[in-house]
Write a structure and sequence with these properties.
Largest interface: A-B, 37 and 42 residues
Number of helices of chain B: 24
Distance between the termini of chain B: 66 Å
Radius of gyration of chain B: 28 Å
Number of domains of chain B: 3
Distance between the termini of chain A: 86 Å
Number of helices of chain A: 11
CATH architecture of the largest domain in chain A: 3-Layer(aba) Sandwich
Order of helices and strands of chain A: HHEHEHEHHEEEHEEEHHEEHHE
Number of strands of chain A: 12
Structural class of chain A: alpha/beta
Oligomer: heterodimer
Helix content of chain B: 40-55%
Radius of gyration of chain A: 25 Å
Strand content of chain B: 5-15%
Number of strands of chain B: 8
CATH class of the largest domain in chain A: Alpha Beta
Largest sheet of chain A: 10 strands, mixed
Strand order of the largest sheet of chain B: 1-2
Helix content of chain A: 25-40%
CATH superfamily of the largest domain in chain A: LarA, N-terminal domain
Number of domains of chain A: 2
Strand content of chain A: 15-25%
Shape of chain B: elongated
Largest sheet of chain B: 2 strands, antiparallel
Chain lengths: 324, 517
Amino acid sequence: MSAKLIDRIFYTKFTRKGFLKFLGILFGMILFSKNKTTTIYSATKILEPRPRKVIKTEYDMVVAKGKDPSAITRKAIETLGGINRFVKKGDIVVIKPNIAWDRSPELAATTNPEIVATLVKMCISTGAKKVNVFDRTCHNERHCYKNSGIYDAVKNAGGSIYFVSDWKFIRAKFPENSLMFDWPIYLDAVKCDCFINVPIAKHHELTGFSLSMKNLMGVCGANRGKMHSGIDINLVDLTEFIKPDLTIIDAYRILVRNGPTGGNLSDVELKETVIASTDPVLSDAYAVTLFGHKPQEYRWIELGAESKLGRMDIKKANIKLLEI
Amino acid sequence: MNKSKYYLVVLRRLVQTLFVLLLICIVWATKYPLKDYINPEYYFYIDPLVMIVSSVAGKVLIYGLVFSIFVLILSFLLGRVFCGWVCPLGAISDLWVFLIRTVLKLRTRNSEPSKIRNFKYGLLIVIFMFAILGLQIAWIFDPITIFVRTFVFNIHPAINNTVDKMFIFMLQKTNYFEPVETIYSALKNNVLCVSQPVFRNTTFVAIIFVLILSSGLIKKRFWCRYICPLGALLSIPAKFTIFRRVVYSCKDGCSLCKNICRMNAIRSDNSYLTDECILCLDCISFCPQQNTIFKFTGLIKHNDSKQVNEPDTAVKNTDTENTGITRAQFLLYVVGSISLFVGFKNKKNIYKRVVIRPPGSLPEQEFVQRCIRCGNCMKVCPTNVLQPALFETGLQGLWTPRFDTEIGYCEYKCNLCGEVCPTAAIEKLTVEEKMQTRTGVAEINTEICIPWTTGEQCIVCEEHCPVSGKAIKTIEKINKKGKLVKLPYVDDTLCVGCALCEHKCPTRPYRAIKVKP
């Protein structure tokens, strides 16, 4: 049997017809495989921006202070008008916390897990079909998810938390003159009914502070380092694309120095505050004041206000302060 | 064929499958949340060759020696059961040869004319001589290491990639069908890798593995017979084993057992070589007369010889025939390996650290001598930064772990590579110690760096620096457009060389910040 096989392989006459046949098969395979790979691995479609939803709230912004992070989050959203205004029955909700670094929650580099868990529970109790939690991390995914405490917190609260996959980053339709033109964006962040942005308020060397607009970089693919040149306008374009329905800024612990990674307890200050708003620019502008700075100092807040993304004037806005 | 004792072969195959699956599970579970009860070191602890040679070469006592000496005692009690029942390379090779033979209906002669099988003893002597002189080369030939290395470098990424791409294909064709997505994310969270592992320069590892397996088509268990130094080491106590094969009445001219023996250990007069027999039990299961058994005979010398029709030929003939190597050959091997080593040693400066080694690595010379290239550290590395070196560190540094910052970076709060190293070439560090351990120092190339040259904003390196207090600091400068730009520089006293900045640096093709050992 084997001798026959060897004979067939080595002693078959190689004719012109056979050679042509061989070539034909080879080209066919190449064509076929190329077709397949393009359909599988390159995204042919382009992501449209999320539609703008106008949600009327009782106040423009609610700032809640208190000892218990879970209670103040709950109270802030209730004062804003209740989670029912944002999440309807059967909705797919995306909660985007900051899980970018391998740090424990006390070091204030990642969002407080209690606040994330509270939000997940609130969404589920309203009847959300699925609550997705994810972030494209800077450190290793497994380390970040586990050590930030968010993985366990979301799992226990009943939400679905998963690691982002490279193939789900799809080219997005940014305006043509934008520096972010054709930038890949995570599919799940756009294909959802409600997007809740849950950043942590912390220092950042380049942008001054890393707040809700900076936190949205977690849904961007590709080499995010390249976004850093012209970061101010990029953040505005990105926020315009995602249009978060609700912004909850976790200022329970804030990182005042050596951001965005931190890593030292002496850099952390306890503010015990949660900011809830539908306006990303307004909430960022308010969070900046917590650090003792003025929103006018930061170009990305100004640009956000100029491009009608939101308002930056805190004095004119209708803000409710709560103490619990 | 009488098959009433066929269950013995089935049992052996089951045990072999079990051990291969166990090893695969252990290697598969070598990832970030490392469980205490399945540490991949354990499989190497029962490998006497690796343990003894590493401790001789490094002149230290390794913890695993206790277990490997237990394996040596076991092979005195039961013969080379390790080779026949436990060794994963032997098991895979058995399966591979069995499949190919049944598919292609190949037939090969198991007997061989000369005493070329003495080669493995020679190899063992060379390895030991090199170890005594201070160089560890057991990693080239150790079967468990070969299996683990191939699994880590080639098989595991292939399986991972196939499953991953299959799910992606299914999801995209069904427009993200929800049950599939749930299964996929559950698999991703627990079993599969988050990002596809890549190992460079590893085709050769796979080729060696396939060659070893396919050599079984020439003669069954070709590797185990002629080359395997672990088999040679185990066959020394196995030669004096007390668990021997006994043949009662035997029909002349049958010689079935002689023909099917995969190690060709049975002679034509029904005696056998105790040091070659791997107790596969084929000769018992397939004996037409059901007259062969294994029993403890070594201690009870010839007591039951009256009941035995052919009285214990096994013991009688082993000493008279010349197995193993002669004194002259032994001396030849010793002199040869010493001269080889001296020639090797005369080269100056071969142990210079030119690549970044994992955190907690021993000094370069000791590291290369101790490392057995099993690939455990590269498997466990969560960011895939540890890559097998080719010849960057010289011929002696082949497949040792090194940093490849194109692929990954060293996770700051992670000490896994030291945890899984079976020979302690990478020291076991606590997370706090690891965070202080320096692998190199970063250096900024101001000729490529974006803020230094063009005056645009960047400082990605500063943003990512995981060191508390930032090892990369910035100075402010006004650029041509009159805008304030922050320029990064490295604080040498704080930098630990994790290469995160180099990995994230947006300049291409060369990074503006580079970690140097």
